[in-house]
Amino acid sequence: MKISPIKSPEQFKGLVVIPFFEVGERDPAINFESYSISKNLFLGKKDSQFVFEDKDSDRIFLLVGLGKEPSYKTVKTSFRRLTAKQEMLFEKKVLVWLEDKMDADLLEAAVSGLLLGTYRLGHYKTPDKSPKNWSKVNISILSGIKEPKKTIEKAQKIANAQIEAFQLVDLPPNKVTPKYLADWAFDAGKKFGFDVKVLDKKKAEKENLKAFLAVGQGSQREPQFIVMKYRSKAAEKHVGLVGKGVTFDTGGLNIKTQGMVHMKCDMGGAATVLGAMQLIADLGLDINITAVVPCVENAVDNHSFLPSDIIGSYSGKTIEVIDTDAEGRLILADGLSYLIQNFKPDTIIDFATLTGSAVGTFGYECAALFSKNEELSKRLQQSGEFIGERLWPLPMWDEYKTEMDSEIADIKNYHGKPFAGAITAAKFLEFFTENHPSWAHIDIAGTAFGDSEFAKTKHATAYGVHLLIKLIENL
Q: Kind of enzyme, top EC level (predicted)?
């Protein structure tokens, strides 16, 4: 799909998409050019549409209602709906004619939405007809903002990175293995310009990444510890990222009794960080980034680690394994320790599909945020609220720390009680951050993979990819 700005709609033939803000009772009917649309037919209400054809001008008009005060997410969803559900209208030439009220942010949302709507889940379906070739569709954007080309290009890069994250999570676990993620990182690094190093099993053993290795020892698929570095000469800050990369989670010997079919999404945190690395480099942001993505498969065989095992960690601290299904925090512990000890970033953020407790607290609309740094917490919330990727803080009080005390090791990986699961998991991770003053843990168990109008089954959301960029832009 080629998207570019134009200065005039004159002599255009084809589909014309025009978004409208909702009009009030006393406002005149919707008018544009020589057309007048009755309020009985179209008011511009959120999620409404009106289509008509003008044969004299050889145009089809698709009017899209955005509501009275549309948010970034509202606009993005409205435009994604067009290419996702009305692709037959999108032929070779399309004009998107934006209202003067639509600023650069809403233009960005519209363009991103159009691209995201081209994504389809049927990666392995035998098509009964040739899929639409979106590369032949040319979309012209008529906007009154200054330098619309820059906004359009940025929006395309955001959507491209999010689509990559979609695929990483949606593809099956026999495709997206730890090695697949490592290869993806290498390829993206070459294409977009960041350094990649991968520690395989032997190298991880030399580095004493013992907690990371323990989780993967029951799988025939070799674990991969991915380290990525992006550097900018104009950078003033260094941000560290960690993403949980469990490519499939059986629960280990504490095997899951329900919902295992969805556990290909347990590398949603890895997808977030990998997608963000692509986008940061593609946008050329003035920031230094070091990202660690520990990738394993938590499988079951005679080599699997056992409940009651005592395992080591990169930090040198020992861990009592209470539950092998509390595995994500083990690989994150080594990821955080490795990042802090070797790279010393100013700020650290980790993303992980970590606990069902986070889903029980917030459902599927909001991620759980944990941080003792109030400024970082507020910046994350503000960034997420603006683009529609919400997160909300839960307490990090030290009273919860005692829940993770072990009598035989330095800490245990699960408190074994049916309450405060997300909080105690965060306290476990905090134990391996060496009291870093600017660290945030984001539990995306409910937001990385879910239901929506765009598919009949659960699918990836790319939650966190854009959130990170919005945060970095505001640091």
A: hydrolase
